Amino acid sequence: MNSEARKTVHTDLRGWLSHLSATDRLAVIKPGAALEHELVAIAKLLDGRQAAYFPQPDGHSIPVVSGFMARRSWIAEAMGVSESELLATFRAAAEQPLPSQLVPQAEASCQQVVHRQPDVRAVLPVPTHSEHDNGPYITAGMVIARNPATGVQNVSINRIQVHGKDRMAILMLPRHLYAFYKEAQRRGEDLPIAIVIGADPLTLLASQAITQIDYDELEIAGSLHGSPLRVAQCLTNNVHVPADAEIVIEGRILCDEREMEGPFGEFPRYYSAREQREVIAVDVITHRQAPIFHTIVPAEMEHLLLGSIPREATLLAHLQRSFPNVLDVHLSIGGVGRYHLYVKLRKTHEGQPKNVILCAFGAHYDIKKVIVVDEDVEVHDPQQVEWAVATRFQADRDMVVISGAQGSALDPSTTVGAGDGVAPVHEQGLSAKLGLDATRPVVYHEHTFTRVRVPGEDSIDLTAWIEPGRRVDFTSLAQS
Ligand SMILES: Cc1cc2nc3c(=O)[nH]c(=O)nc-3n(C[C@H](O)[C@H](O)[C@H](O)COP(=O)(O)O)c2cc1C
Ligand SMILES: [Mn+2]
Asked: Please, where are the H alpha helices in 193-338?
């Protein structure tokens, strides 16, 4: 889908927040909410209904916002497409990246104000989120770094624990940023990074694309915007950041240092363990005049959807390469937007759903359960998927179990939670995979597997039939 075919595309955070506010989807919170837990509790209660905007959190002069992309329909709206076009639009952008446009510092709003030798805790209103978190965390920071070997950039969101004036600890799961860090470490160097806080919705979404290494996710953001993303070079390193971002922390992931990080309440709604993690040294903080700080409430809709929509787009593309008759996929919210995949298939051969199941497990190690359903089942409705399992699935015939595969290290039922100590990284997340074929036979007798429907139920316009405002007093109806 090209951008000409799309309605208004929201390319700018402030424009998007104004749009939410104008449509009663942004709650302005009274001054004084404590950065420790209280602010997050308020944002969590509003999750999926309204974004929460705190103009003066805890007396801090920088406002905090949370939950501005907490519904699938809002994300589609930001992209200028309908919900049914969401995955195809994201996939097209991921496959046709648009190179960014470098602008001079004078035109980079994110560098209007510069704090040298900053104290992160004093400059930024960093909230403490869940009950047992080990202090304040940056949860909506896009970490941008260059591959030391090739110079190509990468973007990911990583949780960052702020535990000193200019020192922070970071969780890097074994993906691209970690690979860059290992390469820098091999060369005996620190890895220069930028942490971008307060990006527009589509750039945040682009950061979650599942691509090969050496694929700058900012170019996917440009493609989603329909115009090259304006980027600025950092003041202390050669990383390029979105020029219109609210806040940028420039720093380095230190070659050899480790500090304790965690516990931290993560997306599966459990705490990940306290462990030794890599350390970021902060060099400068730059921001716009009157910047806005973004925090993501862990495990709430903004967090889950940011990860699940780009994954769904990638999984659909992956499955369709082998099975063009895969029609749709959904990572359920109950499965924390990561672990449970529902696949809609126009089945042509018996056995095919099991091939689809195996293909899906190969696509991402986080996937723990796959349910394949027919085309008359809506994969976005968990009740319909359960109905398919209840009426089309037999455990002895239609179930696939694979034990001892790689799974999510954040799932506490994997090896992570097995002992009282913490397993070494290479043993974490060992997990079983479960596949359910909940499709009906390709050929069946008469109406054995025909879903009951009433002709007209999809097409009748109820408002045309119901008498508006009409009340009936049944006690005084004439007896006849
Ligand atoms: C709110 C949020 C927090 C995240 N926190 C982390 C994290 O702490 N560590 C991590 O490795 N990935 C985290 N992720 C996932 C990565 O950002 C995501 O997998 C990204 O696509 C990885 O990029 P890469 O494939 O370029 O390495 C988080 C994602 C979101 C949406
Ligand atoms: Mn990447």
From this structure: 201-206, 217-225, 301-322
Domain assignment of residue 257, given as a range: 13-301
Check pocket membership of 149 for ligand 1, CB cut-off 6 A.
no
Rounded percentage of the chain residues whose pLDDT exceeds 70: 97
Contact predicate 86/79, CB 8 Å? yes
pLDDT of the residue at 54: 98
- By most ligand atoms within 8 Å of CB, the mutation choice from 156, 207, 410 for ligand 1 is 156
Q: Are residues 232 and 86 in the same domain?
A: yes
| 439: confidence class by pLDDT, cuts 50, 70, 90 | very high
Q: Is the pLDDT of residue 418 over 90?
A: no
Say if ligand 1 is within 6 A of residue 139 CB.
yes
Distance 171 CA to ligand 1 centre (A): 9
| Residues 81, 221: Cα–Cα separation, whole Å | 15
Please tell me if the CB atom of residue 277 comes closer than 6 angstroms to any atom of ligand 1.
no
Check if 175 has its Cβ closer than 6 Å to any atom of ligand 1. Answer: yes
Which CATH number does the domain housing residue 389 bear? 3.40.1670.10
Instruction: List the residue whose alpha carbon is closest to atom 26 of ligand 1.
Output: 176
CA–CA separation, 248 and 241 (whole Å): 8
d(CA 298, CA 126): 14
Query: Is a pLDDT exceeding 60 seen at residue 137?
Result: yes
Enumerate residues with CB within 5 Å of ligand 2 (an ion).
154, 176
pLDDT higher than threshold 80 for residue 55: yes
Higher pLDDT, 244 or 58: 244
